[in-house]
Amino acid sequence: MTSACRLLAFIFALIVPLAAVAQEADKAGRSSSQNLLLCAGQDEMFVIDADAAEQGAGEKLWSWKAANLPDATPELIKQFNNLDECRAIRGGTQILLTASNGGCALIDRSTSKMLWKGYATNAHSIELLPNNRVVVASSVNGNRLILFDLAKSDAPQFQTPLHSAHGVIWDESRKLLWAIGFDQLQTYELVDWESDKPSLRLVDQYELPTEGGHDLRAVPNSADLILSTHEHVYLFDRNEKKFRLHPEAADLEHVKAADVNPETGRLLIGFWKSEMRFFSPAGAITFPANKPYKIRWLAEAK
Question: Residues of the signal sequence (predicted)?
Answer without folding.
Answer: 1-22
